[in-house]
From TrEMBL:
Name assigned to this protein: PAS domain S-box protein
Domain GAF: 93-227
Alphabetical list of Pfam families matching this protein: GAF
Organism this protein belongs to: Kluyvera cryocrescens (Kluyvera citrophila)
Gene3D superfamilies registered for this protein in UniProt: 3.30.450.40, PAS domain
Length: 230
């Protein structure tokens, strides 16, 4: 941390509100329980709660920070549960439902790139009814290719988390699965009583955040709620 600007470590979407808070502190208005998010050195997001004031005698800001990531995670999960249930009953169509799910997942973890992929077991076809990606257009439906990341999630019914370390060892699968190499890739099975019917996927590109096992648990939680509402 020494020698680093705190804004360089902060999530971009939290920088403006944090700058406003800093201005308030330096104007003599203490800030209590202010929250923002930072990117950990391992790539995941950390929620921090601050209390800060300006010391006129020392001519500097004095602050106390506390990691509230677990508390925020618990609160977000509870809120997501209600939101998904509401969306399942009020969405006019599947597209609006998936758009709302994207918004809900965005309250739990960074999701600039998010896809809902559905699998037709009779034709072995994968389709993308909802796909948001920084660089890649919505793929056309295709036959599921054995050995790809999607195939692994579909056939095992288990989540798959790929970090920069694990991605490096799977270059051939990466070449088949993607046009642009992701930095991190996380896919979880979308299940109903009929079995695995698709994949919920998030990914990041170089310069973005890296997902971890807690993010995997969060996305799996969302997927389970969607499946239970089927």
């Amino acid at each position: 941390m020494i020698g680093k600007n705190m804004f360089d470590l902060m999530l971009p979407e939290d920088r403006e509100i944090t700058r406003n808070s800093v201005v308030e502190v330096m104007s003599g208005n203490p800030q209590f329980h202010f929250e923002n998010r930072y990117v950990h050195k391992k790539g995941h997001v950390v929620n921090i709660m601050w209390s800060a004031r300006w010391s006129e005698a020392d001519r500097l800001r004095i602050g106390v920070a506390r990691d509230v990531t677990e508390r925020k995670r618990s609160e977000s999960l509870q809120s997501a549960l209600y939101s998904i249930s509401e969306a399942a009953h009020t969405a006019e169509d599947l597209l609006k439902l998936f758009q709302r799910i994207h918004e809900i997942v965005g309250t739990l973890l960074p999701v600039d790139n998010f896809s809902v992929t559905l699998y037709d077991v009779e034709t072995a076809q994968m389709s993308f009814p909802y796909h948001v990606d920084e660089f890649q257009q919505t793929p056309a439906p295709f036959t599921l290719i054995p050995g790809t990341f999607y195939a692994e999630v579909i056939h095992t019914g288990q989540p798959l988390l790929l970090t920069p370390e694990t991605i490096a060892s799977r270059q051939e699968e990466l070449r088949i699965s993607f046009g642009i190499n992701p930095f991190c890739w996380l896919g979880v099975p979308l299940k109903t009583h009929k079995g695995t019917i698709g994949v919920l996927m998030v990914k990041s590109y170089p310069g973005g955040v890296c997902y971890n096992e807690q993010d995997q648990e969060l996305l799996q939680f969302v997927s389970t709620q969607i499946g239970d509402g089927d």
